[in-house]
Amino acid sequence: MSRINSNVQSLIAQRVLQQNQLSLSTSLERLSTGLRISRGKDDPAGLIASENLRAEIHSTNQAVANANRADQVVNIAEGGLQEVSSLLTELQGLITSSSSSAGISDAERQANQLQVDSILQTIDRISTATSFQGVKLLNGSFDFRTSNVASGVADYRINAAKYTGGSLNTDILVTGSAQQGGFFLSFGAASIDTGVNSQFTIEVGGALGTRQLTFSSSTTLTNIAAAVNSFTSVTGTQATVSGTGIKLFSTDFGSSQYASIKVVRAAGIASASQEGIYDLNTSNTGAAQTTLRSTFAAATNTLTDRGQDLQATINGIIATANGKTARINTDFLDVEATLTTAQSQTLGVVGSQHAFTITGGGADFQLSGQVNIAGRVSIGIQTVNTSLLGTSSSGYLNTLAAGQANNLVNGSAETAQKVVNKAIEQISSLRGRLGAFQSNTVGSTIRSLSVSVENTTAAESAIRDADFAAETAGLTRSQILVNASTNVLGLANQAPQSVLQLLG
């Protein structure tokens, strides 16, 4: 059929040429931008997935930056703590030096006290001067705040806490009492009677060591207890008079503490059946068992009784315990609490409602791209001020200052050393905890998030980026088709001219 008003072949050629030009334009755009998806119409579902992955990549990269910032903050805190640790070590040497009364003059002791005062002032200065962008790190700014602390809680330390809302209640339930190791020595009289030319000899021991003591006839129980207590710092065991007997017990609580007794020479003391050595009550070391453990004459081998650690739960989680101190360490709460002696031996809930309530504080770091409690790490950095380094039972570091109870001139050197030992333990524990945070939490977070960024970027690239090999091949194909369809269109436009031949 020959028509001139409607050139269908030309229309077909135009349509095909337009499609080929569109395909060529798409290939050129993808090759010039490097993107397979530039707008929604290119791939609606792919665009949605790509945008979600891009948002995740950006938030994850920021989480890596947060982790690096956390590492820098802790590095600055560690620098201050390292200097405090060195000062405490020097303080320990000064105490030892000043305790040698026969080998040091009063002037030297006074000079040592001046050094102690200088060290204490320096520690307080480090506490207030160590900062990051003006934020104090070691003055308690990053310690947790609490309220409503129960009277049964002697000391407590909050190392980490994550919670939603304005506060977190900490509940402690005592399920097993803390105990001291010990015995009750029943003599049946206020003094001992060894008979003629005979002496009563015992060997008393504890976690620190043993000491053999010998007593002659008519020695009072008060004097025997005083003799035992004079060696408490050597043995770790102390004694008190109770009625017609002596309670012998370890100075501290817990399974690592014990008291031991060995009768080297009974000297005929306490031959009555009800007199001798008794165990202390397992649930209340203030009382003795009613069953005789051994007569004095039969106790030729060492008898040992160990203490017992506190058994408790904190917020429903079984706590690990050492003596009267219980601790839990979870992802959401790391807290330890030392109970008073009375409270540690009273089964039940500590406090009328809660042991204490955490009301805020701590150093929060967002170490995940998802902003929620699971992606947040909160760590407590306690103050290193001398008025708070130490414990309420042993004393605090500021008691070593001139004129205070544990100064080096006329104070108790033994107590001073215990205070410094406790302060060293606290600083070392804090440094170790911050080091573990840097190594295990921050370091692992940076490594895992970096891998996550790599994999997420690869997934986003596979969806959105152009494949240059495929697009180059597509470009070549589109160019050939455009050229071919252009030539065909020219032929289609010339075809109607053949109709003119029919007109002669």
If you had to describe this structure to a student in words, what would you say it looks like?
The structure is a single chain. The protein has 504 residues and is of the alpha+beta class. The protein has four domains: 8-34 and 466-503; 44-139 and 382-465, f41 fragment of flagellin, N-terminal domain (Up-down Bundle), CATH 1.20.1330.10; 144-176 and 310-361, no CATH class; 182-306, no CATH class. The protein contains eight helices and 26 strands. The chain has helices at residues 8-33, 44-98, 106-129, 221-229, 232-235, 341-344, 413-464, 468-494, and strands spanning 131-132, 135-136, 144-147, 153-161, 168-170, 172-176, 182-186, 200-206, 210-215, 237-242, 245-250, 258-265, 276-280, 288-294, 303-306, 311-314, 317-318, 320-322, 325-329, 333-339, 348-349, 356-361, 363-366, 376-379, 390-391, 395-396. The strands form eight sheets. The protein has a five-stranded antiparallel sheet with strand order 10-11-7-13-14. Strand 25 and strand 26 form a beta hairpin. Helix 1 packs antiparallel against helix 8. The chain is elongated and about 165 Å long. The mean pLDDT is 87.
